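Support request from a user on the community tier.

User writes: "When I paste my structure tokens into the form, the page sometimes reloads and wipes my input. The last time it worked, I copied everything first. Here is what I submitted, just in case something in the input itself triggers the reload:"
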């Protein structure tokens, strides 16, 4: 077993990391498909100081809402 990284204080195998990354990627696809947001509204861009991306502070799992900035960096309606 090739131990490659520490996640939450525990060594994690490459297979486990691959599963975590696959789950993360699938969750991102669901957000993009079912929320109507654009990638530019939720992803950070290291070359653009204004695009910080979606953070946990922008997400309310309890209310099932997220707050995003529109493409022009104006506040948009919660989707």
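"...and here is what came back when it finally went through:"
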């Amino acid at each position: 077993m090739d131990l490659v990284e520490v996640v939450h204080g525990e060594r994690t195998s490459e297979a486990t990391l691959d599963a975590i990354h696959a789950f993360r990627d699938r969750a991102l696809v669901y957000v993009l498909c079912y929320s109507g947001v654009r990638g530019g509204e939720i992803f950070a861009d290291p070359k653009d100081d204004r695009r910080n991306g979606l953070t946990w502070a922008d997400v309310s799992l309890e209310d099932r809402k997220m707050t995003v900035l529109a493409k022009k960096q104006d506040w948009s309606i919660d989707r």
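Agent notes: The reload is a front-end session timeout and is unrelated to the input. DSSP finds two helices and four strands in the chain. The longest strand covers residues 3-7. Escalated to web team.
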